[in-house]
Amino acid sequence: MFADASGGKKRGTRRFPLWTRDTARPEGGGRAAPGDAPAPARQWPLIAVLTLTGVGLLITALDHFRIGCLLIGAALLGGAVLRWVLPGVGMLAVRSRFTDMITYGILGLAIVLLTMMAQPHPWLTIPFLQDTLHFTVR
């Protein structure tokens, strides 16, 4: 409630302001550890996902692309699981919980499936996807 010039109470509006000064923190975007913990401990979910992704990139650079790409996909799938299970994941929360889970999950699953279908000697054969690939890349 706001007071107007005459001293009476003026009723506030429920509309969003015309000009916003800040953005809202995503749902679950709070700290993953207490506020008195050091910064790495507060952001451990993001650090875990980034560390596993970095290890996957390093292994890929060392000419073991399947294992490295599987680790990258597993890191994204792990991020989706962390986003689902934990109430506060720090900076791993970018959007709403549902959107983050779907985004991390679909990207992680796509990377894992494409890695397993990579040539030569694929570990996984899905005829529908293989036919689609041959149709689009002639």
Query: What multimeric state do the chains show?
Result: single chain
Distance between the termini: 67 Å
Largest beta-sheet details: 2 strands, antiparallel
Query: From the alpha-carbon coordinates, what is the Rg to the nearest angstrom?
Result: 23 Å
The helical percent reads 40-55%
Instruction: State the secondary-structure class.
Output: mainly alpha
Q: How many DSSP E strands?
A: 2
SSE arrangement, N to C = EEHHHHH
Low-confidence stretches: none
| Average pLDDT for all residues | 82
Gross morphology: flat
Number of helices: 5
Q: Approximately how much beta-strand content do the residues carry?
A: under 5%
Strand order of the largest sheet: 1-2
